[in-house]
């Protein structure tokens, strides 16, 4: 027998969490969706669970959204090439996704994270970035 439950929590005025816990066998093609304000996660439960030989009997996935973190991280674009008169600005929420899978380097299926714009973007100059914490305490990067 398997059971899944989703917990939605507003952690503070500045963060929101949706947490999925699944116990029992994992259905290989089952896709679960987690959503918070301005962001959505679609994940295959087999990908979230990880290696079947190390499966502890439960799977956890979470989507954490920070309501105003983008305001504080706009100055960390030092590693990105800037064209003349170009200004970088975060126009979506900053989110963190976690899963039980301890090896997320080469996933069998993609994890789909949908970020909704918080303001109207200039379509010609959008760039997708992630927070790279491996260098100098962290910065936005287009690598990967």
From TrEMBL:
Q: Could you tell me which residue ranges the GAIN-B domain spans?
A: 15-144
* Subcellular compartments: Membrane
Q: A single GO BP annotation from the record?
A: adenylate cyclase-activating G protein-coupled receptor signaling pathway
- Give the GO molecular function terms: G protein-coupled receptor activity
What the entry lists under InterPro entries is as follows: GAIN_B, GAIN_dom_sf
Print the keywords alphabetically: Disulfide bond, Membrane, Receptor, Transmembrane, Transmembrane helix
Q: Name one GO cellular component term.
A: plasma membrane
Segments crossing the lipid bilayer = none
So which domain of life are we looking at? Eukaryota
Q: Which Gene3D superfamilies match?
A: 2.60.220.50
PANTHER family in UniProt: ADHESION G PROTEIN-COUPLED RECEPTOR E1-LIKE-RELATED, ADHESION G-PROTEIN COUPLED RECEPTOR
The protein here is known as Adhesion G protein-coupled receptor E4
């Amino acid at each position: 027998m398997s059971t899944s439950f989703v917990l939605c929590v507003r952690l503070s005025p500045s963060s929101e969490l949706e947490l999925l816990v699944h116990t029992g066998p994992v259905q290989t093609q089952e896709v679960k969706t987690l959503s918070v304000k301005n962001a959505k996660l679609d994940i295959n439960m087999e990908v979230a669970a990880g290696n079947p030989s190390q499966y502890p009997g439960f799977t956890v996935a979470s989507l954490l959204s920070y309501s105003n973190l983008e305001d504080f991280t706009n100055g960390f674009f030092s590693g990105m090439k800037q064209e003349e008169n170009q200004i970088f600005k975060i126009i979506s929420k900053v989110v963190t996704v976690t899963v039980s899978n301890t090896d997320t380097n080469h996933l069998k299926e993609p994890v789909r994270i949908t970020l909704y714009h918080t303001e109207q973007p200039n379509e010609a100059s959008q760039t997708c970035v992630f927070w790279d914490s491996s260098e100098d305490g962290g910065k936005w990067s287009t690598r990967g």
